[in-house]
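REQUEST ID: PR-0412
SUBMITTED BY: lab tech R.K.
PRIORITY: routine
TASK: structure prediction, single protein chain
INPUT:
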Amino acid sequence: MPGQRVLAIALLVLGWSTAAASKDMALVSNKTNSVTAVSLAELVKLCKGQTNRWPDGRPVTFVTRDPGSAEMRLVLEKVYGMSKGEVSTLIATANHGRVNHPAIVIANSDEDLVRKVESTPGAVGLVDVYSITGGVTVLRVGGKLPLEPGYGLHGN
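STATUS: complete
OUTPUT:
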């Protein structure tokens, strides 16, 4: 019986670690942003700091977690297609010379990311779906919302 208990605990822990690695991400926006959807190609440009302004002229700020954090694995694979070191370099390059309004802002946690998006007009960010609050708007990516079949930022 003790062996069965150890096996049950090991399977439970393994299930938790698999669930943690398979999180679904959502693109959230500041409530004042008029954009409600982006294509996957537009998302890549946002994440790389290549989109400077929204159609209404408002500056774009992309808020993200540290590329080296475990939470960013899905984004590194599916959006950037780069290593964490390459993404860190990309962020530094995108922000070069933009002291007053950086293209990309790093958040310390999902809660911090949501707060920064809430308080920055024109801001968007990628966050775990379970960290979404009423203070942000969830944008469609490729015509889909998180948890819909075929959504591009679904963890495996």
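NOTES: The chain has a mean pLDDT of 85.
REVIEWED BY: pending
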